[in-house]
Design goal:
It contains 16 helices and 16 strands. With about 425 residues, it is of the alpha+beta class.
């Protein structure tokens, strides 16, 4: 836990940068409590653990991980992507955990009246129930076996997110009334029985299992590799580590040389986020961005050509040096473009070509792409030119063509049709998208 806590604090350092401190004392930042004043030395074991692991952190492919943890996983951890789609990582997969079986939270049961459940659904979740609640059941489970979607029968059928229900129930009835989403439901008269396992979200390290593995003599490295597959315990870099600054929807990793531009960038990001949210169907609740001290390092790290201001992988955004983007006065345009990419990329069906995504982004952000005499190179179609342009001129020509084709489709069928084609293209749509203009 000392290694996990150290990694977490370095990974999320600056989370409350705009408020001039790093972390809050709430669950948002893993909770901090002062020990009772009556204890002269409340944590000698913790002090020893911190000293013995000094300078050691958890890394995946050389970078600090996001080390989530919960009290008890109930025998199986949960993949992060199943609860937070934008936080999925290979090392945050679902793993079997036989070590937490002796935990006080290994099994639990709660009995709630249908009347109490009805109040939660109506008053707290504001569901438009058409009649009295007659049934609440699990409609869908995730890969770990936890409830993902619940079915509500009250005059009509409705579906609700299991997480939202658990949070609402616990806010009304007390923390840990429903300890986790790892449960079964059984109707008994006018009550519903929740029979469950574990405490908390279940992602990452299980504290109950970790404690048992420690008692059995497993090393910290073995324990952490069990819960975070593919990670290694490693020393901090000898050089100055990058810093992290945060705003409401952004986590920005930056080198010390770009510190001056961090706050203006976060402000521009939040403004762009609000703008994009008015036209996009879905945006990640939190976006990770990274910038580099020089264009050369940006090119080496991302593989992007030097003329690209930014790049993305559908989950995060890589930026040229902030100072360069500010100097060229293209920061806001770049952020708006990349944010719209995140929104569109999440929804794009696998059969839809990338050029359509790029054209939609340009269309939705109202970007003007001037027509140029340069055309897409001979023997290279629009999809190839968009994905791997040979030059900046070819990239601009490809962008212009993609935008023109999306505009044409919008004029014919309206903007809502663009989103339908993006997510659920028909056979005719795909023939058009993969054909020639």
């Amino acid at each position: 836990m000392a290694i996990v806590a150290r990694t977490w604090s370095l990974r999320w350092r600056g989370r409350h940068h705009t408020e001039e401190f790093d972390f809050c004392s709430l669950t948002h930042c893993q909770v901090f409590r002062l020990p009772p004043a009556t204890l002269s030395d409340p944590s000698p074991g913790l002090d020893e653990a911190v000293l013995k692991t000094q300078g050691r952190v958890l890394k995946y492919h050389g970078e600090l991980v996001e080390p989530y943890f919960s009290a008890s996983c109930g025998g199986v951890t949960q993949a992060a992507k199943d609860i937070w789609p934008d936080r999925g990582q290979p090392y945050l997969a679902s793993v079997r955990d036989p070590y937490c079986a002796g935990s006080e939270h290994a099994s639990w049961q709660r009995v709630l009246t249908m009347q109490a459940l009805n109040t939660i659904l109506r008053a707290d979740l504001r569901l438009p129930l058409e009649g009295p609640l007659s049934d609440l059941s699990i409609e869908k489970k995730d890969a770990s076996g936890r409830a993902h979607t619940l079915r509500v029968v009250a005059g009509s059928d409705q579906r609700i997110d299991a997480n939202e229900f658990r949070y609402a129930a616990n806010r009304r009835l007390g923390w840990a009334t429903i300890k986790s989403n790892f449960y079964t439901l059984d109707r008994r008269g006018d009550t519903l029985v929740f029979t469950g396992r574990g405490l908390g979200h279940g992602v990452g390290l299980c504290q109950a299992g970790t404690e048992q593995m420690g008692r059995m003599g497993f090393s910290p490295e073995r324990i952490l590799a069990t819960y975070f597959p593919g990670t290694t315990v490693a020393p901090l870099s000898s050089g100055e580590p990058d810093s992290i600054a945060s705003s409401e929807h952004c986590e920005l990793v930056f080198p010390a040389s770009e510190q001056t531009w961090v706050q203006p960038t976060l402000e521009a990001f939040e403004n762009s986020y609000r703008e994009v949210a008015t036209r996009a169907y879905a945006l990640p609740k939190r976006v990770r961005m990274r910038t580099w001290p020089t264009s050369e390092e940006f090119i080496r790290a991302t593989g992007q050509p030097g003329w690209q201001a930014a790049g993305g992988n559908g989950q995060s955004i890589a930026l040229q040096p902030l100072s360069l983007l500010h100097r060229k006065r293209i920061l806001k345009q770049t952020l708006r473009h990349e944010l719209m990419h995140l929104a569109v990329h999440w929804l794009r069906a696998a059969q839809v070509p990338r050029w359509f995504e790029e054209g939609m982004v340009l269309y939705l952000t109202h970007e003007q792409v001037p027509a140029t005499p340069n055309s897409v190179g001979a023997g290279r179609n629009l999809e190839v030119a968009i994905s791997k342009p040979h030059s900046e001129a070819e990239m601009k020509a490809a962008y212009a063509q993609a935008l023109m084709r999306v505009q044409e489709l919008s004029r014919e069928r309206g903007e809502p049709a663009l989103w339908r084609v993006l997510q659920h293209p028909t056979a005719e749509d795909l023939r058009r998208l993969h054909g020639t203009p």
